[in-house]
Amino acid sequence: MKSIFKNVFFTKGHNRTLVFDSLKNDIFFVPNSFYEKLNSNNFTFKVEDLSTDEYNFLLENELLIDVDNNNLRNFSDLRGIIDFPFDFKICVIELSEAVSFQLGKLLLNRMLFGQLNVVFSEFSNLKSIDCLIAFIDELEIDCIDLTFETGFTEYEYLFKSISKDNRIYIINNNTNKKIVDDYHSFNNRMFRPNGIKESKITNDLSVYFESIEKNTYYSDKLFIGRNTEIKNSKESDYIYNHLSDLDSLNSIKLLRDEKFIEYWRVTKDKIIVCKDCEFRRFCNDNRPPIKGKKFYYHERECEYNPYISKWSEEDNYVDLQSAGISIEKDDVIIDKDKLNTINEYIWD
Ligand code: SF4
User: Residue ranges of the domains in the chain?
Assistant: First the structure.
């Protein structure tokens, strides 16, 4: 008998199925009919059950194992329970002088962050950078994201200030200029690609498991805006309080605030269009979900159309309406003839 490795996960979308090899972090796509064939046999089969192409695909990508019938039950399913040993998985800080003077308050209750993302913009000046450096010196954190927006000018001062720090710094460049850091003493700078797809999709096992129960963008996130406002994320409307109006921030109180954690459990399976998308286990989409009668929805359309499997930056992309997809009565209505014609044109 042959069996698919237990570290390989399948996510069926409307148009195709995403195959995730979590050991290698590889992603493949297969027709839904192939996924259904494997699923109906609990991902265990004989060579003759599959077509030559199907079998070769699994073999070449090292997705299957020879297994004796008696040993099959020794391969149990991987069930992921993700628990972070932090108060917040990520803290995002929009650096301004006002915020920088308040940062010490985040340390008073020994608040723990898994990751820090500092956003630099026209509001970040030399004084604020000095306060930030003093703050991050106190943090037990291995990796810090630096996100640069148009308007920030103090690159040299910032990079000199962190040149001796041996933590990993990930640089997100949202400006249209090249950013160069010539001052670092260690090989610890990484530039994150900023294409639409790369900024949304993270093929990682922890994201895969987390997405089953949580919204991977909003859950376990803390955002401090440039006016010291405390929110779940930049995109959230609800302001819990201002750091400048508090003596310290108490995470237990904050996590009891229903409005603050409103989106945390809104998984992609509860959102129309996303529930039909094969990327829904890896998606960090930042659009706030809006509650409908049956499902959540978004006001603005995603850059990916899962009904034709195309990103807006790719050839032959068309939007939902042009593909025969409409949202009516809080659900997705598909004009099958129109969609089939478009998919035949794109993919045949
Ligand atoms: S439709 Fe867009 S936002 Fe929704 S899961 Fe797919 S890629 Fe993410």
Answer: 2-74, 88-255, 268-347
Atom 3, ligand 1: residue with shortest CA distance: 285
Question: Which of 212, 267, 303, 304 most suits a substitution to test ligand 1, by most atoms within 8 Å of the C-beta?
Answer: 304
Is the CB of residue 282 below 6 angstroms from any atom belonging to ligand 1? Answer: no
274 vs 184: CA distance, rounded Å: 41
Span from the CA of 281 to the centroid of ligand 1 (angstroms): 9
| CA of 274, closest atom in ligand 1 | 4
Task: Please indicate, yes or no, whether the overall pTM of this predicted structure exceeds 0.70.
Answer: yes
Indicate if ligand 1 lies below 6 Å from the C-beta of 208: no
Q: Pairing relation of β-strands 304-305 and 310-311?
A: antiparallel
Q: Are 266 and 220 in contact (CB under 8 A)?
A: no
Among protein residues, the one whose CA lies closest to atom 8 of ligand 1: 283
Would the CB of 38 count as within 6 Å of ligand 1?
Answer: no
Q: What pLDDT was estimated at residue 184?
A: 81
The torsion angles phi and psi of 185, rounded to 5 degrees, stand at: -90, -15
pLDDT at 109: 82
Averaged over successive runs of 10 residues, the pLDDT of the chain (348 residues) comes to 94 98 96 97 93 97 90 80 85 98 91 94 97 94 95 96 94 92 84 86 93 95 98 97 94 95 97 97 96 93 97 96 90 95 93
pLDDT at residue 242, rounded to an integer: 97
Q: Which residues of 150-183 are buried (b: 16+ CB within 10 A; e: fewer)?
A: eebeebeebbebbeebeeebbbbbeeeeeeebee
> Ligand 1: does its nearest atom lie under 6 Å from the Cβ of 296?
no
CA of 331 to the centre of ligand 1 (A): 16
Nearest to 144 by CA among 102, 114, 164: 114
Phi, psi of 169 (to 5 degrees): -115, 120
Contact call for residues 275 and 268 (beta carbons, < 8 A)? yes
